[in-house]
Amino acid sequence: MLIMFRVKNFASFRDEMILDMRAISYKDMKNHVLQIGKNKVVKTLAVFGKNASGKSNLISALYYFESFVYNQFFDAGNRDDEVDLGDRMPNVKRSTFKLGEEVNNDSEFEILFTQNDKTYQYGFVIHDIPVEKKYSIKEEWLLVDDKIVFERQEEGISFGKKYEDELKGIDKQRQDRLYIGILDYFAEGEVKKIVDEFKAYLKHKFNVHFELILEGSVKGLVSGVSFLNRILEDKEYRKTIEKFIRVADVGIVGLSIEENKNEKTKDRHPYEVKTIHNVYNDNGEIIRQEKFELNMESSGTNRYFSLIQYILNIIQDGGVFIVDEMSARLHPILTKFIVDLFQGKMNKEAQLIFTTHDISLMNKKQFRRDEIAFVEKNKKGESVLYTLADIKARADASFAKDYMAGKYGAIPVLSDNDIYAEMKGEWLCQD
Question: Which one of 128, 217, 273, 360 counts the least CB within 10 Å of its CB?
Fold first, then answer.
């Protein structure tokens, strides 16, 4: 369960940005709150903001943290849950804030989460060396239940009293390697268990959705959708996926798993998924069924198929699902359906964080005030994150109406633009 994520000097986030999932003690929608131990967190967080405000930079920061840390573990190649990805997690290029007068080459990341009744706090500071096109780890720290496991500074590493005997012999470090990755290889005993739990959280519970859908502007020219091994191996799971596809009302009645007979791709992708549609006669009676390749389906259908696999896994197993522009290509009712799954009674330990422009979701029947966030960028190119709770929005406010009226910020202000004023008379209709 994610409690908090913090980043500083990453892309447009020049100053410290805190993504805080801790629930405020509101009386409304208590079923939107998860409690594990002493921690109370919200199930969902919807992030709104104008184009280029920094919403995608927020998702990139979360993904960068996940991939950078996970790829330094000894067995990072053993992520076997997906068919279409390579051995290691693809990396996101890290960029510090570039629009300030002073250059700062240090970026900072920190996460706070719970795993198996323990609270983990881990972070690091990474320093760019532009001339050499290298980086070094400047600081790093790990705490479990508020007790220090290790603290790394440029001058060396210190250990918490509880773990000192185990760790004092593991003093190996490289400037370009995280110490937690070194512990994964050398540690034993209690520390090894801690590292294994950390790895398990990143692998199974922390899912920044990486979606590779190849498509053209014309349907059918090119398409590619990743799918999980589980859909090949688990018939009951596949039946559940089929049920969730049918409820989306896209005309698909089932899925067919077949051997890939394409000589060029079958070694890497031995199986392919096809959709099943009913064929009707003129009287509306089903006479047979037809199989479609995925590139025959719309981009929205393919995206829903891609998303729903991960969503069901997360809701069943627990964890946090993070996705950029979740409503892209989806009808608003489908987007709401996905949000409702996370906010429903069946969800006991899963969270959803997503960015969107779909303001039909921005209402007090769908979200609490601590579940609606905004990313705003000022004229200096600096992004900030805040929630309706942070700005003390009223519980009875009309969230979407007030947002579009500019009361919460994070919208494009065209009327303040000289170019817009010029275009208004020349290009735009005026009644």
Answer: 217
Assess contact for 385 and 18: CB atoms under 8 A. Answer: yes
- Among residues 99, 106, 91, the alpha carbon closest in space to that of 8 is found at 106
- DSSP codes joined into one string, 15-74: S-EEEE-BPP--SS-GGGEEEETTEEEESEEEEE--TTSSHHHHHHHHHHHHHHHHTTST
Q: How many CB atoms lie within 10 A of CB 83?
A: 17
For residues 44 and 351, is the Cβ–Cβ distance under 8 A?
yes
Q: Tell which residue, 174, 127, 171, has the closest CA to residue 150.
A: 171
The rounded distance, in Å, linking the Cα atoms of 321 and 116 is: 18
Mean pLDDT calculated for residue range 279-296 = 95
> Model confidence at 26, in pLDDT bands (50, 70, 90)?
very high
SS3 77: coil
If you average pLDDT over every residue of the chain, what do you get? 90
Side-chain half-sphere exposure of 139, counting CA atoms within 13 A: 11
Ramachandran quadrant class, 411 (left: phi over 0; alpha: psi -120 to 50; beta: rest):
beta
Burial string for 283-321 (b: 16+ CB within 10 Å, else e) reads: eeeeeeeeeeebbbbebebbbbbbbbbbbbbbbeebbbb
Q: How far apart are CA 46 and CA 354, in angstroms?
A: 5
Give the tokens for residue 119: 């609270």
Span 297-326, mean pLDDT? Answer: 94
Instruction: Report the DSSP beta bridge partners of residue 123.
Output: 110, 141
| 231-243 tens-digit pLDDT | 999 999 999 999 9
Burial class (CB in 10 A: 0-12, 13-18, 19+), 412: middle
Question: Angle formed by the axes of helices 299-317 and 332-343, to 10°?
Answer: 0
